Amino acid sequence: MSSQRVIDGRDMQPPEPLEKALEALDTLPPDGELVLLLYCQPHPLYQILRRNGYVWTETMQSDGTNEIHIRKAASA
């Protein structure tokens, strides 16, 4: 069973959403997923995710929220 953790960073000031996301990823179980809610695209986070073997999908909600689902990439 996968676990999901949600961080609502829409009312946080940078770099707090990035810091909270990185802390959550450190403790994310192998089958877990982190959902990050932001009003922007966190390009510095994307670079960190790419370097550390994570994959993500994004959905733009009608209120302008960027919903980012982050998972550890499947091992080959």
From TrEMBL:
Protein name, per record: Uncharacterized protein DUF2249
Pfam short name (any one): DUF2249
Which residue ranges does the record assign to the DUF2249 domain? 6-72
Species, as recorded: Sulfurisoma sediminicola
